[in-house]
Amino acid sequence: MLKRIGSELARHVPFTAAGAVSGIVIMAIVVIAKTPANISETIFYILHPAHIIFSAIVTTAMYKRYSTGKLWAAILIGYTGSIGIATLSDAVVPYLGGEAIKVKMEFHLPFIEEWWLINPVAFLGIAIGYLRPMTKLPHAAHVFLSTWASLFYFTAFGATNWMPLLPLVLLFLFLAVWIPCCFSDIVYPHLFLGGEGHHHHEIDH
Q: Between vectors from CA 50 to CA 191 and to CA 16, what angle results, nearest 5°?
């Protein structure tokens, strides 16, 4: 198990690095264009729900395909796997990253503050994943979506001159996506599949 996690962490590095670099490019454009924080916030609340529905589809589909597919368990796994991991990567890590580099950040939990938006898309993703467990979604798309949501959390809820801090933001964007995505792809499913075969290439998250 630990060996598998290590190999998958290494395999995910290129996708995550590319996503982080794309995020820095977009962030530089946002800063240069002097994009208002409210615009960044609007974009965040488009990308974050999209990330959640994507994660819910894959997590639920993975469980349904490689288990007995109990509905209550699929809902529990799909919800916690999408809401929990997306909140960590899109909000908690960017907040902690901003605070670590001495940027005054606002802390937000979208699934509580914007429950009417976030929770329904999670359940929609669960329904899609449960009814269509063969869904194949590329890991690269997940990485880019999560990275962009994270970067817009920085610009929406952190007030500073971001340009000199871009190298540090790059690091936090990488970490915000790399560890949570690998956890959702590998560790989290194994907690519930009880050792049943999980062929990562068939549902590529």
A: 65
